[in-house]
């Protein structure tokens, strides 16, 4: 059964209906094969762009939907419930557009944003490095200004859409002034000196390529500097706050899919002459799974509504990311248990859901980092 949602406008209701149609007709049936073959569904993102779903939180003047985050995240949840690779890809692309949309000049936005949110170009977010993951301020990829260009050297790690993106939002060091020495550049993927390593071999999200990015004397125009020099870490952290809400919504979508699968199986599977859902042991397990999904959804919606109201939401984004991704890991694991032996086979998607859930606790700030951030908020009072 579709999730019952409280949406703010009739337009939002129509958007969710459109999203469900796309999720059912274009995504759900293709997910298993796409993940089994490791095929990246590039055409799906063009479809999302043409359908108006790739730029929902961005201004109408640049082709966006100008929808509140509360609506965008519920669209993201629906997509993730059908195919996690597409949901995570949409979240990453939206975060890759964030610096330009919020910190770029009018000229920069007019030049690049319409193609980004119209589906003609796909983005990647290049922040992490091998020795600067959780400690983003320690990054060492360097951009040196030489006239009207920057020369970029260094290696970025764990880049979603590496090798298939059309642009990368790059955080690079432009001075040795610690956290204040980082700047943001919008880099075209065809830039000479930029290359992607072969994709990582992952336990899940195999349809979504994750690679290193190598910058070897890459020349990037100074007109691609987003914000001022030294603003990069501030920009990156602001994007991550919104991105964490996105990952929370993806996690809820995955958990909802696992719950739906488990309930459907438990209704149909009979033992001792009756459906196993009638046994209290399974009934209570499914009830706990449902409670986890509903609670996780409430956390990301709370953060989104605060963001839409212009209130501080960093704490709430960390809480949502922590609660929702931990819930996804538990719910998907329990779904395998409900299905029993067949849950451990690839005849059902439960084992894929479980593999996909794990990375949600790791990227966009590990859940240990989220606990640290929440603790710091508490310490500040």
TrEMBL record:
InterPro entries: Acyl-CoA_DH_CS, Acyl-CoA_Oxase/DH_mid-dom, Acyl-CoA_Oxase/DH_mid-dom_sf, AcylCo_DH-like_C, AcylCo_DH/oxidase_C, AcylCoA_DH/ox_N, AcylCoA_DH/ox_N_sf, AcylCoA_DH/oxidase_NM_dom_sf. The keyword Oxidoreductase applies. Its cofactor is FAD. Residues 9-119 form the Acyl-CoA dehydrogenase/oxidase N-terminal domain. Keywords: FAD, Flavoprotein, Oxidoreductase. Residues 230-378 form the Acyl-CoA dehydrogenase/oxidase C-terminal domain. Residues 125-216 form the Acyl-CoA oxidase/dehydrogenase middle domain. It comes from the Bacteria. The keyword Flavoprotein applies. SUPFAM superfamilies: Acyl-CoA dehydrogenase C-terminal domain-like, Acyl-CoA dehydrogenase NM domain-like. Belongs to the acyl-CoA dehydrogenase family. PANTHER family: ACYL-COA DEHYDROGENASE, ISOVALERYL-COA DEHYDROGENASE, MITOCHONDRIAL-RELATED. This is Acyl-CoA dehydrogenase family protein.
């Amino acid at each position: 059964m579709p999730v019952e949602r409280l949406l703010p406008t009739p337009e939002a209701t129509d958007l969710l209906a459109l999203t469900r149609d796309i999720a059912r007709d274009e995504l759900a049936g293709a997910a298993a094969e796409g993940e089994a073959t490791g095929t990246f569904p590039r055409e799906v993102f063009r479809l999302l762009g043409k359908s108006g779903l790739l730029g929902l939180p961005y201004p109408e003047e640049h082709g966006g939907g100008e929808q509140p985050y509360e609506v965008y995240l519920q669209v993201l949840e629906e997509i993730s419930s059908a195919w996690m690779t597409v949901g995570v890809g949409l979240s990453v692309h939206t975060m890759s557009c964030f610096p330009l949309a919020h910190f770029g000049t009018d000229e920069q936005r007019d030049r690049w944003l319409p193609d980004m949110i119209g589906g003609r170009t796909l983005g990647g977010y290049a922040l992490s490095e091998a020795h600067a993951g959780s400690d983003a301020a320690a990054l060492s990829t360097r951009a040196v200004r030489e006239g009207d260009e920057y020369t970029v050297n260094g290696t970025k790690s764990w880049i979603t859409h590496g090798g298939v993106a059309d642009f990368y939002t790059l955080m690079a060091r432009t001075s040795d002034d610690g956290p204040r020495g980082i700047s943001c550049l919008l880099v075209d993927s065809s830039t000479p000196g930029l290359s992607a390593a072969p994709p990582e071999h992952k336990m899940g999200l195999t349809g979504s390529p994750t690679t290193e990015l190598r910058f070897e004397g890459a020349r990037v125009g100074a007109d691609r500097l987003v914000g001022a020099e030294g603003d990069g870490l501030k920009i990156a952290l602001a994007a991550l706050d919104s991105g964490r809400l996105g990952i929370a919504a993806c996690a809820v979508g995955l958990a909802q899919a696992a719950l739906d699968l488990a309930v459907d199986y438990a209704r149909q599977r009979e033992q001792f002459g009756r459906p196993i859902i009638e046994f209290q042991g399974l009934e209570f397990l499914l009830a706990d799974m449902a409670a986890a999904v509903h609670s996780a959804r409430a956390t990301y919606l709370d953060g989104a509504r605060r963001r839409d109201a212009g209130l501080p939401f960093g704490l709430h984004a960390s809480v949502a990311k922590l609660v929702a991704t931990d819930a996804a890991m538990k719910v998907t694991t329990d779904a395998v248990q409900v299905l029993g032996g067949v849950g451990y086979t690839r005849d059902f998607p439960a084992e894929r859901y479980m593999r996909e859930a794990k990375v949600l606790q790791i990227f966009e700030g590990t859940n240990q980092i989220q606990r640290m951030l929440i603790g710091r908020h508490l310490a500040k009072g």
